[in-house]
Predict the structure of Fe2OG dioxygenase domain-containing protein.
Amino acid sequence: MSVDSKKIRKVPKIDLSNFDSRRDEIKEQLWNAATTHGFFCLVNQQFPSKSDILEIFQLSESFFKLSPEQKNKTPHIKLKNTGYEFKAQIRPSSTTKLPENKESLQMQLHRYDENWPNEEALGYEDWKKKVSSFILKVQELSMMILDIFSEKLGFEKEFLRRCHDIHADTAQSTLRFLHYFEKSLDVEGETAINSIISDDESKTTNWRCAPHTDFDVMTLLFCKEGDKGFEYCPGRESFNDFGYGDEWSSISPQTGEIVINIGDMLMSWSDDKLKSNFHRVRYVDDSMADRFSIAWFNQANTDVSIQGPDKRYEPVTGKEFIERAMKRNFDRLNGIVN
Ligand SMILES: O=C(O)CCC(=O)C(=O)O
Ligand SMILES: [Fe+2]
């Protein structure tokens, strides 16, 4: 498929205004979107508000402006899914196996005193408090949605909420600040980008973020207005490896809107009723400038047992689920086929 022949799909937009009085209507819309597209956009949510979202982008940029030395004081700890990494992530779908041209910072609320940036260096008053307050808002919004999925799946209403306790030592949910570099800044990546832009997408290397599904339960993604390059294949419509050759659609949300995708953990937990999906971020011709995005990955606590009401899959703990997903990625990167 050529780069220009994107399928235009209408991403479901779900209006959350007057949530309490409209909850039944919203419930049906969320269920519909999650069981078909697996991908939808929230608008008019009470929190995090547009100003909360604008502020969190400022907080993220203030971190990325620090010197490499300062940023490296919060090192990436893989097993704890926290900290700062620079051009480190290689996704199995990347044909070049070059690290993605980006830096990122991951934070978990329960590790607030363990591996978060140093506030003095940031020179931004209450940076950590403000990031935590954003996490609490994005967590509550996520739980409002998971309560609905709990009910629809036939679990007790707050069942999924209880499985996502971000204050416990067993928490796994993570906030990730992402900064993709301007194309011209990456010499190695640029060579690859210029050398292989192919109609055969499996040979294309011009990804900011190569095709993948998320391991988690549900991801809330914040983008900046006018941002281009985010593409998705809805509802596991994709039947082949990483969605290559499938019909991809692009989405450019407005600031304040929240893009949601269902992850593999919830797909499995719902006996495949809710659809995880492939997504990717490409360099688009007129948008080579740097790009910032923010993702909130909802992941069940390590000690939770994950199994759908129909018991389609064997039970697995939150910890095992993530470990297996990471191992699958590792094996694919190393050419091991399971
Ligand atoms: O940066 C983006 O817009 C998407 C990031 C993403 O999909 C991920 O980190 O899993
Ligand atoms: Fe993702």
